[in-house]
Amino acid sequence: MSHSDTTSLATTRRSYLGWLIGLCGAAVSAVLSVPLVRFTLFPLTTKTTETKWSDVGLVADLQSSASPLTRTVTVEQVDGWRKSVSEKIVYVSKDTAGRLQVLSAVCPHLGCSVQWQDGKKAFVCPCHSATFDTNGACTGGPAPRGLDTLAAKVQDGRLMVRYQYFRQLVKTKEVIG
Amino acid sequence: MSGGRSLFGWFDRRTGLDGLLRETLDEPIPGGARFAYVFGSALLFIFVSQVITGVFLALYYVPSSDHAHTTVAYITKAVASGSFLRSIHAYGSSAMVILLLLHVTQTFLYGAYKGRRELLWLSGCVLFGLTLCMAFTGYLLPWDQKAYFATAVGTNIAGEVPFIGAWLKSLMRGGADMGTLTLSRFFVAHILVVPAAIFGFVAMHVYLFRKAGAAGPISEHPVAPTLPAEPFYPKQVIVDGAFALLIIAILATMSHFMPFELGPRANPADAHYLPRPEWYYIPIFQWLKYWPGSLSFIGVVAIPSLVAFFFASLPFLDKRMERRPWKRPVAVTVYVFIFLALFGLGGLSYRSDHGDPGYEAQLIAQAKATEEFMKEPFEAESPAAVVAAPAGDPLVAQGSKSFAAQSCNACHGDGGVGGPAGTALTGIHQRFDADHLATLLKSPTPKMTAGGMQPLDLPGDEMKALVAYLGSL
After folding, report:
1. Which residues contact B145 (CB under 8 A, 6 or more apart)?
2. Across the interface, do A18 and B454 touch by the CB < 8 Å criterion?
3. Residue B311 and residue B277 share a domain
4. Parent domain of B462
């Protein structure tokens, strides 16, 4: 065996070893990166934000009113490791069948808060004058749909609501956040 | 294949990577690869692991005294793999200290600091100190009971330094007491300042090591090696790699089966709490007990500084080229004595804690509190105060209601913090006085109208309330 043969054999052995070590290193790194990936993707795979049910008031009180009632609800949200508490305005009115419903005050057009105007018997948006009837159906203006109803339930005689935001400028009610 | 090769060739011509790699891998080791040489690269490996896990932990951590504990609890109890990563990081700090001691011991016993290696040794001493800094600063970050009290004691020790002690302590704490500023300082030291210094000194240490050359076995002359040299690659690389794999396997096993615990949130008012530092600081902790009052300076500052000074000046004091430990009885005896003294102090600390029934009961109670806290499910942090109307001024409270009722918050955000469609209103009273604000609200400027602002037609007192509210933002 000549000298150059020995060198090339050694080089082949060395580069083969290099590939082997590189492969092992890559395999070990891949295994070690699993917890890192899980850790980073946690907020994507698990619900880290959650809205609790908020108290609107006694059903008996709410039922007696003929026109919609304004209520401020305290919304408790879980946001990662913290809770946030904010106040939102909702309207309690009756749907076409006469059952209580809770409407979001956020106009489905561009997000201003609509106001109930007793004289007009309508919800009017102060920004671009969209109007809605007492059931929440759109009766005029630029809003693409009626006021959004919020998920509600009765618990121990009290009306509870789950506050949510909905996408604006679309015909259908789509939850965001 | 030729495409790949030419691409590699182009890349190599631009970067010189191949030469750099060869330079790194062909480092000559007199006498060949050995298991005794693994500790340096193992330290580097664990350091990299600490950097990676540390960066990831920072995704959820908040360095503030009112959120730190909650966010660490969130990592530990809620986030996927969170407890595992935190454990790897926390146990990793112990692994760093153990490997550091092994690395120093190997270097010392092999006399590998001899022969033109003064700066190499000194840079290693600095890295030793920086590693202990990392352990000390990282310990506070979870803000649990043991973190808080161990750091209270640690910073008090700094207060013993003559002349500048009180100032030094305040500098470390960011004030007279431990608090959220202390946490910020420790956090910045832990993730920015000390790691940056470590990167720099590691580079210097590795460079000086390559400049001086590997020392080889103890029989070898430190400056002019005679044994045939073997390159670092492949044998030493494989040995180092196998050792790194062993360490990570041990860390992963420990982290999986006995995850690092988080204790209850720090309660500075708890007068019964017995602070105990992490195991590697226990000997020093015990040592401090023997130096009461005015003597404390000697024990706390003078003697440790003297030991550190002699330790660092070793290559200047011992200039002989003799490397075999049995031919260096004085140095080796002193080294072994210091080690035994540290072990002895650790033992004494254990005995004094477990010999006193009162102490023992308290330590058991503390361990139990930690265990109970670990069993509780994660509880999201409640806001300190409900963000409703600012308390106090009823006019401001009324204005806050108008702010919501008039949909101001739809564009300007809740509390006037600004939103996608509207500017922030915080501090607006500094730009416009009350009358000017009321005028602007009634008849917005063309620029405001273009931005979507609607004129507000409000009764006088309601407008006054709204302006008062804007003034409070």
Report:
1. B263, B264, B265, B266, B267, B270, B273, B366, B369, B370
2. no
3. yes
4. 394-472
ipTM: 0.77
Predicted confidence (pLDDT) per residue in B390-449, tens digit: 456 778 878 887 887 777 877 787 777 776 567 778 778 777 888 888 888 888 888 887
Strand extents, DSSP E, B202-292:
229-231
In chain B, which residue's Cα lies nearest the Cα of A10? B234
Same structural domain, B402 and B370: no
Nearest residue in chain A measured CA to CA from B239: A21
Q: Please state whether the peptide bond connecting residue B390 to the residue before it is cis, i.e. omega within 30 degrees of 0.
A: no
Residues B205 and B342 in one domain: yes
Domain co-membership, B283 together with B398: no
* Element of type H or E holding A76: strand A69-79
Domain boundaries, chain A: 1-45, 49-176
Looking at A76-80, B101-105, B400-404, which range is the least confident one? B400-404
Task: State whether residue B405 sits within 8 Å of chain A by CB.
Answer: yes
Same domain (yes/no): B330, B451: no
Residues of chain A contacting B454 with CB distance shorter than 8 Å = 126-127
Q: Does the pLDDT value for residue B23 go beyond 50?
A: yes
Residues B257 and B406 in one domain: no
Assigned domain for B7 exists:
no
pTM > 0.90: yes or no: no
Position B450 in a domain: yes
Out of 3.40.640.10, 3.40.190.10, 3.30.450.20, 2.102.10.10, the CATH code matching A49-176 is: 2.102.10.10
Q: Is B12 on the interface with A (CB under 8 A)?
A: no
**Nearest residue in chain A measured CA to CA from B68:** A81
Per-residue pLDDT of B342-361, as tens digits, reads 999 999 999 999 988 989 99
Residues B212, B118: Cα–Cα separation, whole Å: 10
**Confidence at residue B434, expressed as pLDDT on a 0 to 100 scale:** 83
Tokens of B126: 């600095």
What whole-number distance in Å separates Cα of residue A62 and Cα of residue A55?
12
Is the distance from CB of B68 to CB of B143 less than 8 angstroms?
yes
